[in-house]
Amino acid sequence: MTGNETASAGQDEPADSDARTALEQNPQGQQLLSRLLHVDFRAGARDSIGILLGLIPFALVFGIAADGAGLSILQTVAMSAGIFAGTAQLVMVELMATNAGLAIIVLTGLVINLRMLMYSASIAPHFTEYGKRTRAYLAYFLTDHVYAVSIGEYANESRDRDKRLYYLGLGVSIWLVWVITTVIGYVLGAGIPASLNLQFAIPLVFLAILVPAIDAYPQLVAALTSALVAIAAALAVSQTGLPEGADLLIAAGVGIGAGVAAEEVMGR
Amino acid sequence: MNGYSMLSIWAVIVAIAVATYLIRLSFIHLFGRVNQVPTRVKRFLKFVPAAVLAALVAPQLVTPSAAVTEMVLDERLLAGAVAAGVAWWRGDILLTIISGMVALWTFQFLLF
Questions:
Q1: Considering only CB atoms, which chain A residues are within 8 Å of B96?
Q2: Which partner for A95 in A100, A115, A171, B65 could form a disulfide, CB atoms 3.0-4.6 Å apart?
């Protein structure tokens, strides 16, 4: 990362926050402030709202489950802050609650998170312009949601976003709320009434990004194939010994193959 | 309460945290080093968003069942269809969520 790059970020952004007076005394604080106030950082933070609606109940459930499994509050926070992957975290504490073997827990967590290899590969072309250290911290925030919303936004070239700041606006907001809500769930043990089904907001966000992404027949073939395989594979996970998380890997893999094949057949 | 030692729980958490980070970093690091993504790889990457998103969404909307009516009259599937329609029509994330949630609550009320 270069100094020029940071200095230019959000220079023209008017700021009226009180925090500004305190921060503008030193150049580093000024730099951080101008990034936080940057229009693209704020756009990312704003676009996290829909995700948060679905993630808050999820984080509460995780906090409650971690308490139930006998984890300390520090361990619970370490999971949310360090692993930062809801499904893996929840499955891990469920396994701990049943006293599963440690190797099984680690292996399951790994299989569930392997899907992020696909996210990493898919988003990497958007980050090649950044330095090694920037890429290193950007990678830390790569969840399902941050990936999906960012890739949807990057596809819309007319918006001309600062890719890094938009991504960070999303990632930092989601990370903060995820960690804080986990603690609330752990301490208060209170959830949002399950009958509201707020967690349904998450597949809705994915749907909202998926639909405009289908702009050609091969994309449609990839999506439909993947959807059908995913439904069958989810059934296989619940009824056979197929490890949790493997269903998504299989479905997406077959879907991507089908998309490439369809493009080949149609002669592009 | 659980039967693990404090240390082994910490070891599991740290192991998964580090492994997860390395998975996330993998290609972001690699493609940054070579500075461009091979064209052959791009042909596959192009389908990642559609395939992954479909695989994330579909099992949340459909529960396989022998009774077809039961499968189709699932409030989640119907709400998903409404939301997909709104997404196609307006392409707005927040509007899609709101219409999908309202549809879900409505169908839950009507079907049960």
A1: 204-205, 207-208
A2: A100
Average pLDDT over residues A162-190: 94
Q: What is the ipTM of this complex?
A: 0.87
| Structural domain containing residue B102 | 48-112
Which of A70, A80, A71 has the alpha carbon at shortest distance from B17? A80
Residues in B touching A146 (Cβ below 8 Å):
none
SS3 call for B46: coil
Residue-level length of chain B = 112
Distance from CA of B110 to the nearest CA of A (A): 14
Across the interface, whether the CB atoms of B49 and A259 are under 8 A apart is answered: no
Closest to A92 (Cβ–Cβ): which among B8, B16, B21? Answer: B16
**Do A71 and A161 fall within a single domain?**
yes
Q: Which residue has the tokens 């089904």?
A: A197
> Is A149 in the same domain as A252?
no
Predicted TM-score (pTM) of the model is: 0.80
Percent of chain A with pLDDT over 70: 90
- Min Cα separation B92/chain A (Å): 7
Residues of B in contact with A125 (CB under 8 A): 31, 36-37, 42, 45
Do residue A106 and residue A156 come from a single domain?
yes
Q: State the residue range of the domain holding A258.
A: 214-268
> B52 and B42 in one domain?
no
Write out chain B's pLDDT in tens, 112 residues. 567 888 999 999 999 999 999 999 999 999 888 877 888 888 998 999 899 999 989 999 998 877 777 777 889 999 999 999 999 998 888 899 899 999 999 999 988 6
Contacts A240 to B, Cβ<8 Å: none
Q: Print burial letters for B72-103: b (CB count within 10 Å at least 16), e (below 16).
A: eebbbbbbbebbbebbeeeeebbbbbbbbbeb
